[in-house]
Write a structure and sequence with these properties.
The complex is a heterodimer of chains A (426) and B (194). Chain A has 426 residues and is of the alpha/beta class. Chain A has 17 helices and 12 strands. Chain A has 2 domains: 8-287, Type I PLP-dependent aspartate aminotransferase-like (Major domain) (Aspartate Aminotransferase, domain 2), CATH 3.40.640.10; 291-425, Aspartate Aminotransferase, domain 1. In chain A, strands 1-7-6-5-4-2-3 form a 7-stranded mixed sheet, with helices on both faces. A 5-stranded mixed sheet of chain A has the order 8-9-12-11-10. In chain B, the strands form 2 sheets. In chain B, strands 2-1-5-6-7 form a 5-stranded parallel sheet, sandwiched between helices. A two-stranded antiparallel ribbon of chain B has the order 3-4. The longest helix of chain B is centred in the last third of the chain and has 13 residues, at 181-193. Chain B is an alpha/beta fold and 194 residues long. Classes of the chains: A alpha/beta (426), B alpha/beta (194).
Chain lengths: 426, 194
Amino acid sequence: MTDRLPGFSTLAVHAGAHPDPTTGARATPIYQTTSFVFNDADHAASLFGLQAFGNIYTRIGNPTQAVLEERVAALEGGTAALAVASGHAAQVVVFQQLLRPGDEIIAARKLYGGSINQFTHAFKSFGWNVMWADPDEIESFERAVTPHTKAIFIESIANPSGSITDIEAISAVARKAGVPLIVDNTLATPYLIRPIDHGADIVVHSLTKFLGGHGNSIGGIIVDAGTFDWSKDNKYPMLSEPRPEYHGIKLQETFGNFAFAIACRVLGLRDLGPAISPFNAFLILTGIETLPLRMQKHCENAKAVAEWLLAHPAVAAVNYAGLSGDKYNNLARKYAPKGAGAVFTFSLKGGYDAGVKLVSNLKLFSHLANVGDTRSLVIHPASTTHSQLDDAAKAKSGAGPDVVRLSVGIEDKDDLIADLEQALSA
Amino acid sequence: MNHDAYGDDYIREILHGVKSIAMVGASPVNVRPSYFAFKYLAQRGYDMIPVNPGHVGKSLLGKPFVASLLDIGRPVDMIDIFRSSSHIMPVVDEALKLMPLPKVIWMQLGARDDAAAAKAEAAGLKVVMNRCPKIEYGRLSSEISWMGVNSRTISAKRAPMPTRGMQLSLNRMSVGGGETGASDRAAKNKSDSA
């Protein structure tokens, strides 16, 4: 017997949400409350002991947040999810479950500059060590594996370069090393790429970007694929060993294929505290309802802008995997056949100065440090998002001094091209 | 029956149809998964019977332990086996001696014995392996969605009220005996003008 599976757009509207049983409200209510009344003392004890499903306190979970979690889990094809205050918070919570001081992760060199900073500085202060590998050279991941390796971390579409990562090849390295593959799927969204289908064990997002999509709310999420055996070899004691604060419960034994998401909630979120606000969860949830429509438009516009830039005499190079001549076009065809996303970089023949001048001449593109807004955005990574990296690291992450990054919005593409044209000729 | 992937209708029909569940390997220790599942299913209205020879003479949430399935002494719809895979077959053999036969053999999360399953199915029983009835009940009722778990269900219908509708409560605090200051003044105005 097989169940008929709803399509992506149906899940984007419905997954996780149903009419409120008490009031009949059809849209998901914003449960703007800190706490939830218990039925009786036994119910309270059951909730605190993880014996019953339910709500206690919004730092640990909230019904509006839960709808967001189930929706993203459904869209990614995962077993469960945990929404948190930001994409950065998602990464800290994930690694707190996996790492002890002295442990290592292998991370792709091509990452969002903020993630490189977090791994290099904050993680170092926790005693978590990062080995960098080159996503264009799979062997560099294999060489970085040591007995202390606990996870591999990559971006599906890298920020800012827009390059596509060979998820399946790196997943094979992770499987051989006996560690989970964690994929930051922020720039692709599950509409373009579903990393779990390609071997990811955990997916993280900044919900702030395309999923929320309107540039109005910060949030992050962790999706558990339910694929990794946390008890094997006892490498992940947070999941396999009895938890003293929960009277000796072993999380994987109790929660099976969504134990990692539960660990992130009842150990990570409980102790570290980066809860998402119910209002932000609501705004992001509303954004997700139109994710398929927006991503189609984002990709269509990005391709048109990239093609126009490629033909412009002032442009030295365009790095967009959706272009047929691009280095990553084959990977884009394999992993992101519906479109290569809407964030990419290009460089001008006039170098750094021409890039800075372009950014200041644009009238419709907003100069700011975000991506994945309905509005088109522009930034010069070398002086902003990636400014804290040294020159070699900037170049390796695709943020050299002459590079300009665009996040193409859902305006009319002719208006975006006209704005670039006037800015380049000014 | 494909025991790698069960359709929701298969699980739903089992959980909707059975009334009594004997839990083999039920533990009175309140941090064991079997205890959670026993309590949860009892609260959902199932007639639960704890089976564990090590605890005969004690009871679990008011239900006395029995040593084996053959000691239950009344018909039972489903056998939920909280034992590891290597201990499944003897339990299934015992279940197949019951008269009348149970309708369902359920093996807990992590437990799977395909030979035992084939034997039970040949006798006309339904079999579920490597699943937890608490998790499946929570998933198909969407209660588990509160934990961010993907229930893999959607619905545009209003869910049943967690209680049977709003009930008369004797615990509400009364404020002003049902009258307000304005209604007092209105009554006074009426009597003044009379």
